[in-house]
Amino acid sequence: MACLLIVEDDVDLGEGIGFAFSADGYVTDLAVSIRDGRRMLAGGGYDCVILDCNLPDGSGFDFCRAIRAESDVPVLMLTARDTELDEVMALELGVDDFMTKPFSVAVLKARVKRLVMRRDGGQAVQSNGIRVDLRECRVFRDGGEVLLSKVEYKLLLFFLENRNQVLSKEQILEYVWDSSGRFVDENTVSVNIRRLRSKIEENPDSPSCIKTVHGLGYIWKEN
Known about the structure:
The chain is α/β, with parallel strands linked by helices. The chain has two domains: about 5-120, Response regulator (Rossmann fold, 3-Layer(aba) Sandwich); about 125-220, Winged helix-like DNA-binding domain superfamily/Winged helix DNA-binding domain (Arc Repressor Mutant, subunit A), CATH 1.10.10. About 40% of the residues lie in helices and about 25% in strands. The chain has eight helices and 14 strands. The chain has helices spanning about 10-20, 35-40, 60-70, 85-90, 105-120, 150-160, 170-175, 185-200, and strands at about 5, 25-30, 50, 55, 60, 75-80, 95-100, 125, 130-135, 140, 145, 165, 210-215, 215-220. Strand 1 (about 5), helix 1 and strand 2 form a beta-alpha-beta unit.
């Protein structure tokens, strides 16, 4: 059972995030300041930290720097400031992932799940005869390797991490492309899903894995 530390001074938001993850079986703790976060982290045992950028007693960037001096626990940073400079600074400090507010809870869950899996040493995800080697970022279908583009690989991984759940085009855009959906439109999703189907489906014209849910989005249907 994974344990998350949420460092967020907006109590309602922090509790909402905690509730969403608790429903999936995670154990969550909420810190509303860097001071609280330091105290909780000192006890150890966390599998991931969800860290707000702006806190009442300092910057999330400074806190991340302190975390990295002592621990390799995965850190996902949340910020209301949608600037490239913030993202670059966060990644240079050792943040494992970065999302801007407002954000999709489904996308946040998928990203945290991926970070926790990597920490736990998870090396593969598989479904319906498709196997993804997370360590080498390679995809296999019925034993043979399937060559995917970077976008197709991320798209496939998002589906596998959320199998049997309907994913909207907006959620897919946010996860696979830019965090705010910039530079692409909804047509980009359908085009890339069509390309992915052509590589992993036995019959792309009648897909059995990635199904369209009209008016809602797409779903990976596990057989």
